[in-house]
Amino acid sequence: xxxxxxxxxxxxxxxxxxxxxxxxxxxxxxxxxxxxxxxxxxxxxxxxxxxxxxxxxxxxxxxxxxxxxxxxxxxx
Length: 76
Description:
By secondary structure, the chain is α+β, with helices and mostly antiparallel strands. It is built from two helices and four strands.
């Protein structure tokens, strides 16, 4: 079961963000984020063993659909 909640936020004139809220983190990825990235973050939302490093590794920074902006809020 996926514990993450995925939402999109947009304000006129500002960048839109896709946001994943998990048990131990909040991730904001510039929208439209690749579906594979959002699914991976939502799946990791319930992983009690996830580290901030493993979460950042789920954000594609290269390839055909790179993400150019993202942010994490993390609490252990």
